[in-house]
Amino acid sequence: MSIFDTIKTAIFGWRPSAEEVARAQAQQQQAQTGAHGSGQVSAMPQVGQPQAAPTAAAAVDVEAMLTQKMHAKGDPDLNWRTSIVDLMKLLDLDPSLANRSELATELGYSGAKDGSAEMNIWLHREVMRKLAVSGGTVPAELQH
User: Fold this and answer.
1) Which one, 15, 125, 127, 132, has the greatest CB density within 10 A?
2) What count of other Cβ atoms lies within 10 Å of the Cβ of residue 80?
């Protein structure tokens, strides 16, 4: 399986474990009562709800899925919105230069595969674009 296919499967087919659901719910409850003081329910989808496979009728909300996964992992410092390394870490994938270089080759990157900021920024944007083409709903700001 290609690295991009592994990324896509990790996002489109991810289901949280019972431990991840409990941790995310506790963090969400703490954030709601701490930030709002009233315990209001946030608009974020609940972590434990089943996610449909991507279809023309029901695309996967990539941003919501990754945000849920970040909360479930309990690592809010991962900057998956702009960093290919953090995105790969969030998905429990090896973000080594070798793997990012292989991903760059898969996706058609023509520059030096040396782990430069240019390569990493291109990889992140291209992964987001390809997720959108593959049936994911990806905000425009993550594709540019």
Assistant:
1) 127
2) 21
Angle, in degrees to the nearest 10, between helices 62-73 and 18-36: 90
How far from each other are the two terminal CA atoms of the chain, in whole angstroms? 26
User: Among positive and negative, which fits the CA dihedral 6, 12, 126, 107?
Assistant: positive
Cα distance between residue 6 and residue 27, in whole Å: 28
Query: What's the pTM value of the predicted model, to 2 decimals?
Result: 0.70
Nearest to 80 by CA among 67, 92, 71, 68: 67
Q: Which run of H or E residues covers position 56?
A: none
Residue range 28-76, pLDDT digits in tens: 777 777 655 444 444 444 444 444 444 433 578 999 999 999 999 888 8
- Residue 54's CB is within 10 A of a number of other CB atoms, namely 19
